[in-house]
Predict the structure of Protoheme IX farnesyltransferase.
Amino acid sequence: MNQPDALIATAPDTAFAEWRDYFALLKPRVMILVVFTAACAMAVAPGTIHPFLGFVAILCIAVAAGAAGALNQWYEADIDALMKRTASRPLPAGKMEPREALNFAIALSVGSVTMMGLATNWVAAFWLAVSILFYVIVYTVWLKRRTPQNIVIGGAAGAFPVIVGWAAVAGDTSLLPWLLFAIIFLWTPPHFWALALFMEADYSKAGVPMLPVTHGLAHTRKQILGYSALLVPITIAPAVLGLTGWAYGGTAVTLGIIFLAMAVKVARSHSARASDMAAEKQLFKFSLLYLACLFGALVADRLLLA
Ligand code: HEM
Ligand SMILES: CC(C)=CCC/C(C)=C/CC/C(C)=C/COP(=O)(O)OP(=O)(O)O
């Protein structure tokens, strides 16, 4: 092959980004649980919303979460290119021009916030804008490359959507939605650090100061247990305060015992190789099921009481 032919064969094809690439830019798998928690908050919020407007509100939260994920990928294509888990994303893989991704993400951000304001109310639209800005500016631009506390503070981004969902129906916020916010806020460190333990090599290679990279595996395991111990009482608080029934409370206690048992197993583990980290992988997977079941129970509890 002469030189120009070789270039054509290996150069990334950014001319024709496909719909699949745009879809991948939205981090759709993570979005599902974010949207689910927000939809559950909508279901238990006081007030009524027309089913069509409720659907539009959920769509706006999904689009905003996707837009924030796209802005995140636009900003950190350099580190995504260095990590095995993220190297095949559309930007590091050269399937899309950065400018295309940025325009797409800005259009979706502005569109979703505006649509939320028009379809529901501007309190919900305000918190939706805060969610996007928190994920992009506070987490991605400001904290991610600077401090291992990045996900503790930045984790609020993933907790705001429940406030958005609640406000879309109720028009304002109250104690219960802020407790739901606190649940996701405290859940995020065990969720993410369990994964970061077995992905430590990737983050270390990319120079991202995640806790296992900066403070080691043993310290991270202790922090996971500490945050889990804070999380479980907060999940039970809505029932204790009489804001939910005991169907939710009982589920929170049961799930909490399982979550704590798994976190203890992680804290006791000494594995240094990702391939030996069964307890960490189990906790990461369970963290997803845990949050889904907890929010599902919140809705089921409300239906039982109705
Ligand atoms: C700052 C906060 C958070 C960080 C840094 C974080 C980080 C991560 C990372 C790195 C992954 C692996 C993604 C992949 O390889 O595809 C992941 C997976 C996941 N996260 Fe989080 N996460 C955070 C908050 C949340 C929140 C708030 C939710 C939902 C409420 C969530 C839901 C999920 C889900 C559902 C997956 C599995 C995706 C899959 O199956 O590929 N995350 N998270
Ligand atoms: C409504 C709205 C704006 C919601 C956004 C909230 C949201 C999805 C928060 C979760 C944050 C998240 C997926 C971080 C992934 O970390 P990372 O970006 O460091 O992961 P990566 O290494 O996979 O890129």
Summary: The chain has a mean pLDDT of 94. Residues 211-240 form the longest helix (30 residues).
